[in-house]
């Protein structure tokens, strides 16, 4: 599968620091089924990147190849500067991951399960294991439930315990596959807070999610997959801003505003408090100057952008209709 002929694709930038994770020509097939198709992904260091896509779009397969859990059919994978999966032993101690839901021993308590994970951490001494487990449980809000058997945990509690396992020691990169799955609103806010804390500490976070509102609230960058192909990646703000540049002008004189804008051959329509004008043929300062020159009173002017839900819907339509976007 390749990008449609009418798409515009710019290659990933070579400027700035090396990405925390990157792929080139990444492809994975299972028999005749193409799960991931020539993906060139960059996860900028220090970013919170949301990986989006419908079910079956290749998100989890891509993550598994990044972590060395699955060997690519074709292409290259680099994680924290190390080629994967050949140099996984060098890269993975700096990576915490929760992929496809946590798997723990059902008859052990949450704390006992984490102690088993802690024993496998190469950079965690025996003397520090208990403290690391207590800190991780507190960080995800499971201190009181740490002594309960895992089989009695709710789905949301299991997700939190999996996140605690990923955060037993300081990481450079944290990979989370649907981290808010099964969580109530309060639990979701807690996970959002944990991600914000990691971002403030300079940790790179890769989040796979189907909750677009959460991605928009927590992520600095986005990568969108559809049918195994990467159809968009880049800074979230720039991606949303680039889609439908428009200006919302608040004015009591809607009639004069519309007449002025349409006389200048600009696309404009009434809005709840005034007019909305598309910025395809003029800049925002041009529009404001034009309206002021026509005597239109302006109470407020704000730049409008596409919401992530609308953008996601457009990008994940049939690939023949969906453009590929890369800043």
TrEMBL record:
Residues 1-26 are annotated as: Disordered. Pfam families: ABC_tran (PF00005). GO terms for molecular function: ATP binding; ATP hydrolysis activity. Residues 21-252 form the ABC transporter domain. SMART domains: AAA. Keywords: ATP-binding, Nucleotide-binding, Transport. It comes from the Bacteria. PROSITE patterns: ABC_TRANSPORTER_1, ABC_TRANSPORTER_2. Residues 10-21 have a biased composition (Low complexity). Belongs to the ABC transporter superfamily. PANTHER family: ABC TRANSPORTER, ATP-BINDING PROTEIN. This is ABC-2 type transport system ATP-binding protein.
């Amino acid at each position: 599968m390749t990008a449609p002929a009418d798409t515009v694709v710019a290659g990933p930038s070579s400027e700035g620091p090396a990405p925390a994770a990157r792929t080139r020509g990444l492809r994975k097939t299972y028999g005749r089924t193409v799960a991931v198709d020539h993906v060139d992904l960059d996860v900028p260091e220090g970013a919170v990147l949301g990986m989006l896509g419908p079910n079956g779009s290749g998100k989890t397969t891509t993550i598994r190849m990044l972590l060395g859990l699955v060997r690519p059919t074709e292409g290259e994978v680099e994680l924290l500067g190390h080629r994967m999966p050949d140099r996984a032993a060098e890269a993975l101690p700096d990576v915490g991951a929760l992929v496809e839901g946590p798997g723990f021993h059902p008859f052990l308590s949450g704390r006992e399960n984490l102690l088993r994970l802690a024993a496998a951490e190469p950079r965690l001494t025996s003397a520090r294991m208990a403290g690391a487990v207590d800190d991780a449980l507190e960080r995800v809000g499971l201190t009181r439930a740490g002594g309960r058997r895992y089989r009695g945990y709710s789905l949301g509690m299991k997700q939190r315990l999996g996140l605690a396992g990923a955060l037993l020691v300081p990481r450079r990169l944290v990979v989370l596959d649907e981290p808010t799955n099964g969580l109530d609103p309060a639990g979701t806010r807690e996970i959002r807070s944990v991600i914000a804390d990691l971002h403030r500490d300079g940790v790179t976070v890769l989040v796979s999610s189907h909750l677009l509102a959460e991605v928009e609230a927590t992520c600095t960058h986005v990568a969108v997959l559809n049918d195994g192909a990467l159809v968009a990646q880049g800074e979230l703000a720039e991606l949303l801003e680039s889609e439908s540049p428009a200006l919302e002008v608040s004015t009591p004189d809607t009639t004069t505003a519309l007449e002025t804008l349409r006389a200048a051959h600009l696309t404009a329509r009434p809005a709840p408090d005034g007019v909305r004008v598309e910025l395809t043929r003029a800049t925002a300062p041009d529009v404001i100057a034009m309206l002021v020159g026509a005597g239109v009173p302006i109470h407020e002017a704000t730049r409008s952008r596409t919401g992530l839900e609308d953008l996601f819907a457009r990008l994940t339509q049939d690939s023949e209709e969906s453009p590929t976007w890369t800043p």
